[in-house]
Amino acid sequence: MAYLLDSNLLIYSADAAHAFLRPLVQDPANYGSAVSQVETLGFHRLVLADKFYLESIFTLLGVLPVSQPIIERATVLRQQQRMTLGDALIAATALEYGLAVATRNMSDFTPVVVLSVYNPFVS
Predict the structure, then answer these.
(1) Measured between alpha carbons, how far is 27 from 31 in angstroms, rounded to an integer?
(2) I need a labelling partner for 12 at 20 to 30 A (CA). Which of 30, 39, 61, 96 fits?
(3) pLDDT tens string 27-69
(4) What is the CATH number of the domain that holds 109?
C-alpha cells in the first residue's frame, strides 16, 4: 500500500532515534503533501541539517499539490467534523489519490471513517 506521509512522521524521521521510519519515508512509492512541505520546511526554528534532510525527502517522494477537488473535499470533511485545516487537506489529498495516511497522530484522522490510517510507531 502507498502512503501519504503526515508532517509529524517526516519530522520524526529526521531524528536518529526514529531511524526505523526512514525506509517508509524514503520509499518512492509514497508521497508527501504540499501542506506537509509548508508545515515542515516553514517551521521558524528549523535547523539547517533538518532543512536539508526534509528537502531531500520531498525531492525523493514527490509532492502532491492541493487542487480544487482536494479543497472541495477538505471543506466537506471540515463541515462533518472538527479538523485542522492542515489535517483536512492531508486527508482530502489521501482520499483523492487513493492513499492511506501514515502518521503518529491517529486521532487527527480516525474521524474520517473512509480513510485508511497507519501508525508505524505501533506496527
Answers:
(1) 9
(2) 96
(3) 999 999 999 999 999 999 999 999 999 999 999 998 999 999 9
(4) 3.40.50.1010
